[in-house]
Amino acid sequence: MKKLITTLVSVVLAMTVLSACGGKNSETPSGSEGSSTDAITVRLGVFKNITHAPSYVALDKGYFQKEFGDNVKIEVLSFDNGSEFSTALATGEIDLGTVGPGPSTNQYVKSKNFRVVSGSNNGGAVLVVGKDSGITDVKDLVGKTVAIPTKGSTNEISLRLLLQQAGLKVTDDATGVQIIARAPADTLIAMRQKEIDATLIPEPWGTQMEQEGIGSILVDWNKIPPNNGDYPLTIMVASDKFIKEHRDLVKAAIKANLQAIDFIEKSPDEAYTSINNQLKELTGKAMDVELIKAALSRCHITADLSTEAIEEMAKVSIEAGYIKDITVDTLDLSEFVDLSMLEEVKKES
């Protein structure tokens, strides 16, 4: 009997030690913070535009997956415009991704629950005028209809700045310039059918219109305001909740973004293929590689980001009525842009 009791006590003690050391019998709540073995799903938002090239390359080359780790599953959600993306980020439908500063700033002022963590691409939008439109100067847009991807988009803000430079006003009649919202694919059709006079649109749509002969680029990407094209058109953002719970994964995403930018710069031909692979994945249709090459030549792929440019565009949004309840004088975006994690990644690299 004594031998039996001793044996039972030894077994119990052994099981206790195994449990304390994380053995098979240990119980860790699923999704608990700090557990490296729990499966995590990262919901990544992207657009169907060449201006989001680094995200495409990071997905296709496996940079996101490598940096996130094997216990992370990536769920990619694609968007047609920044307003939908920003709403999805603010409401917790996605964790992080790339978007334009215009709609994301508009949403941030309302929800204040996500941050800009890195740049991704500067520039990449062009002003295209229709064939036989007779428009040879920005001032010729008076009385004309100009399409932008969506109301409050970064492209609309650039268009408004461009019109301001030419001394033109946005109106609903022929005394000024009329702005309408059309998805890029619909804008392409509208340009073919001469239903619009011009469009300020991100790549590759402008290049495609030019190559089809239905439009010509009046203002190239490096003349689009602010800063003559050197403004953030695509930025990486992450929700506050995701940053708080998974700061390491946000830094991993930034690192993947930097690797993709480096790859595009050093191996452009391979990058075109990676971009095409992801475009086909997201849209179901591949794109001519020469079109991708031409479109990407109108982008400045970089993680650098101008806070001043974001603030300038935000002021235009206030004046246009997209940002309400604050004025240009009370605008405060000091907590919107948080590049601390980007700096940490650069130092670690």
Descriptive report:
The longest helix has 20 residues, at 247-266. 46% of the residues are buried. This protein is of the alpha/beta class and 349 residues long. The protein contains 14 helices and 11 strands. It is globular and about 60 Å long. Helix 6 (154-165) crosses helix 13. The strands form 2 sheets. It has a 6-stranded mixed beta sheet, with helices on both faces. Strands 7-6-8-5-9 form a 5-stranded mixed beta sheet, with helices on both faces. Helices cover 44% and strands 18% of the residues. Mean pLDDT is 90; it is low at 1-36.
Helix content bin? 40-55%
Number of helices: 14
Secondary-structure element string: HEHHEHEHEEEHEHEHEEHHHHEHH
Q: Provide the residue-averaged pLDDT.
A: 90
Question: What's the total count of β strands?
Answer: 11
Beta-strand percentage range: 15-25%
Low-confidence stretches: 1-36
End-to-end CA span: 64 Å
Give the overall shape. Answer: globular
